[in-house]
Amino acid sequence: MVDTKIDLAGLSLDNPIIPASGTFGYGKEFAEFYDLDVLGSISIKGTTREARYGNPLPRIAECTDGMLNSVGLQNPGLEAVCDTELKDLAELFHKPVVANISGFSLDEYVACAEVMDKQPNVGIIEVNISCPNVHCGGMSFGVDPASAAEVTAAVKNVTTKPVFMKLTPNVTDIVAIAKACEDAGADGISLINTLLGMRIDLKKRQPVLANKMGGFSGPAIFPVAVRMVYQVSKAVNIPIMGMGGISSTRDVIEMMMAGATAVQVGAANLVNPYTCRDLVTGLPGAMASLGIERLADIIGIAE
Amino acid sequence: MKRQYLVIESIRRLKNDVYYMTFTGDCHEVSAPGQFINIKVGGFYLRRPISICDYDIGHISIAFKVVGAGTQKMALAEKGDLVDVLMPLGNGFDVSKGGRNPILVAGGIGVPPIYCLAKDMVGRGEKPRVICGFNNADDVLPMTKFNEIGIDPTITTMDGSVGMKGLVTDAMYEEQYDYVYACGPEPMLKAVWSLAPDGQFSFEARMACGFGACMGCSCQTKYGSKRICKDGPVLYREEIIW
């Protein structure tokens, strides 16, 4: 019998499969398809202090082996997420969840982190630093090591639970940013967020997305994600949640060999809602066929 | 709602770039006209959401227009092919909330779900009036299925090549009604909405999941944001914000 258990920053997960933020809502829709308790954890829809309607439609564009989205962090806001969504999720999923938070200023990150830290079913706080910093000319917090470190330290200052910084791949040196987060006290790194992309409607001769650009996800970005997880895992001593285009058990194993302790699955949930359940059930067989007894043994095994 | 495989029972070209496809399989969960299925097309990442045109416990049919490479590929499907679908999706029309004197208005590829609704109403002993609008004679879809259930829709074309010249709203001026069910392109829905005292309007949107997870098709309504795929595609007149 193979062992799929992993330890993620002190949290023991039955398996490393975690639906990624923004592709799984708060679990409700997927609970109609399968029992959520098979999952290792769930990363909830990105939460901001205030409710956000998000971007105008169209928000979705298709790509070869992937998609663009410009949803724009639509969410009901911190209070509603804690009062309603997290409580409802606790009825459907009986394990700790990953609370994904976003902000457009340090204050907003701190406010979200403080409240999320107190929620009983939150096991990990995942800080998305891909949003534009409104106090700093709109440049994303995550593209600069100093501002990434600043958010990390501010969030760590108000939390007791493990904090994972979710990094954007749209940078020249992902390692420098990951290290800055580690030095500022991060307990882990989540990567990669979506790659910035664009499609143009040939008939309309205009961008498909109302917001013009959007985040590129899906199997097409998997090699980029593997590369970044590999680079970062060699440079830091904190665990990594690896994500970006994962859709098969082989992808899960590859991402873990690259250095991920757990994996998140995003776009694939939208195409096949059973993806995460199928990964969980398929993992032992895939491990056995590759001679892997303990999944934890292969983390970062690729030299 | 579930993911399942349906078998293509038949596929034929209805008119120019519009195709009619029938499937067999477990369709017992389909509960209302206006619901849709989300179809996986080989070689394409996202599914294609298409309204149900007709259904019973073991069959459904759809009519779709070729608008891009994905629907082009769908048009090449053959009898006997297995198709991966998520279904049924969306709320659909609710005739129990309709008025005493309704009219059904469809535009272009919005006709199939309106046929589905008309058939449902005929099954309830009603004989709904239907208006179908098209650009020109080339686009006019066959009305055979309507005729089979005893309905003779009023046809409008922009250029007057078939039926009444003008828009569906021009035909609406000639009718008395207290409730409107509509499906068609958004400019048509907006024009129909402005003439409708009350009604239900079926919207179209670019979607990723089709079952409410991704927020890719959320729109603002008077009662907060709604997902076209899950809370719609049918919205009620009073909640729509243009």
Q: Topology of this structure?
A:
The complex is a heterodimer of chains A (303) and B (242).
Chain A: E1 6-8, E2 11-13, E3 17-19, H1 28-31, E4 60-63, E5 66-69, H2 78-92, E6 97-101, H3 106-117, E7 122-128, H4 145-156, E8 163-166, H5 174-183, E9 188-191, E10 195-197, E11 200-201, E12 206-207, E13 214-217, H6 222-235, E14 240-243, H7 249-258, E15 262-265, H8 268-271, H9 275-289
Parallel strand pairs in A: 3-15, 6-7, 7-8, 8-9, 9-14, 14-15
Antiparallel strand pairs in A: 1-2, 4-5, 5-13, 10-13, 11-12
Chain B: E1 2-15, E2 18-24, E3 36-39, E4 48-56, E5 59-65, H1 69-75, E6 82-89, E7 102-107, H2 111-123, E8 129-134, H3 144-148, E9 154-157, E10 164-165, H4 168-172, E11 179-183, H5 186-195, E12 199-202, E13 218-221, E14 224-227, E15 234-236
Parallel strand pairs in B: 7-8, 7-11, 8-9, 9-10, 11-12
Antiparallel strand pairs in B: 1-2, 1-6, 2-5, 3-4, 3-6, 4-5, 12-15, 13-14
Would you give an account of this structure?
The complex is a heterodimer of chains A (303) and B (242). Chain A is α/β, with parallel strands linked by helices and 303 residues long. Chain A contains nine helices and 15 strands. In chain A, helix 3 (106-117) runs parallel beside helix 4, helix 6 runs parallel beside helix 7 and helix 7 crosses helix 9 (275-289). By secondary structure, chain B is an alpha/beta fold. Chain B contains five helices and 15 strands. Chain B has a seven-stranded mixed sheet with strand order 10-9-8-7-11-12-15, sandwiched between helices. A six-stranded antiparallel barrel of chain B has the order 1-2-5-4-3-6. The model of chain B has no long low-confidence stretch (mean pLDDT 96).
